[in-house]
Fold each of these.
Amino acid sequence: MFALSILANPSPASFSHAMADAAHRVLSDRGYRIAFHDLYAEGFDPVQRTGESGNNRSDDALIERHCAELASADLILIFHPNWWGQPPAIMKGWIDRVFRLDTAYGYPPGVSYQGVPVGLLKARHALVFNTSNTPAQREAEAFGDPLEAIWKRCVFGLCGVDSVIRRMVGPVSGSEERQRAQWLAQVAEDVAAVA
Ligand SMILES: Cc1cc2nc3c(=O)[nH]c(=O)nc-3n(C[C@H](O)[C@H](O)[C@H](O)COP(=O)(O)O)c2cc1C
């Protein structure tokens, strides 16, 4: 089995990194092959320079590799902090460039770009792990928890992955070691549930 794991956090000491490590340990124990991309470490270029109709191929070999991995992954894992209710821009650019036409979604014959696309991804499960400094209840009540809709509906739902487990842990700032260990145990449990 093959897992694609994407991390967007500029700080190697971040809790996002710790969560990715915990998830990878479970996958390795279960014999998964893992393609792991730390987008900042990789220097990923997040700028999508063509519109939708030109966005089904790229001259950039790294983009082709990411797209091939996305299309063939059995399981997709995402790690990033909550930045203004959104993913960091580097992750947004990864979505723009890699969840592309004819890789992640497509239009059946006779359906135009105004129509409803179909999802093309093979993965049956996605896991999204976010860090935040806002308690979950306030994030939902004050801001509507935009990351929930972005990942579950706008991205994975549209691309055919209906099973999305999403956790937003926090407040991370000032959190105690015991609490962090509990969060990492939850990550491992979530991965084990679908791996
Ligand atoms: C540009 C930026 C925007 C942020 N926006 C939010 C926000 O909207 N809500 C929030 O709770 N925390 C926000 N934060 C705080 C981060 O979510 C927090 O530092 C992070 O989750 C800590 O976890 P980490 O160790 O994985 O980086 C923001 C941080 C930065 C740098």
Amino acid sequence: MQLYHFFNSSTSYRVRIALALKGVDYQHHGVNIRIDEQASEEHIKLNPAKGVPVLVTDDGQTLTQSMAILDYLECSYPETPLLPDNTLAKARILEVAHIIASDMHPVNNLRILSYLKNELGISEEQKVTWYQHWINEGFTSVEALLTRHGHGSYCFGDKATLADCCLIPQVANALRFGCNLSAFPKVLAVYDHCQLQPAFQRAAPNQQPDFIA
Ligand SMILES: N[C@@H](CCC(=O)N[C@@H](CS)C(=O)NCC(=O)O)C(=O)O
């Protein structure tokens, strides 16, 4: 397996958590999105959508889109499941995962923030306001769902699931952007718990070979 990723990219971090939880080794390839390497000719051959992560499987298949990669890993390495068999329990986990992957991440992705700033001329302060607004909207929904259906030290119970794989990187990014998350105590409790778990620690940005503080 080869993973093309960036240490601070939350979509990459999702996949790294799943790989670590499932105990799957991979070769690291850093793609620095701060200097637009994701838009290089070489990277576009791997991912026409100009993003990270990209997973290249042992038989040479190139996979893009973190949620598709997570599904591939779930089906290929079922020994440590991140989704339960129970249909309703699985849907509950996917609800939280998709608030983050489908509602929150896309509007705050680097290319969106860059477009707002460089093409539409918003200020740095307005950019941060935009970012924090969508973080608050998304985490308000996640907090409500965890309050209704969550239990245990992870989002759902005492084992990590796909919801945790998506939640932890999004919290890490929000904290990096200076968001005040005190209105989301359940989200923060899960984040604090996961920070202590070896698989989550191995997947963290500061453990990646190309990490820059
Ligand atoms: N929906 C895609 C998004 C991939 C993506 O855009 N990743 C971000 C990093 S978190 C990226 O490469 N951004 C570069 C850019 O926006 O130009 C996925 O889940 O894999």
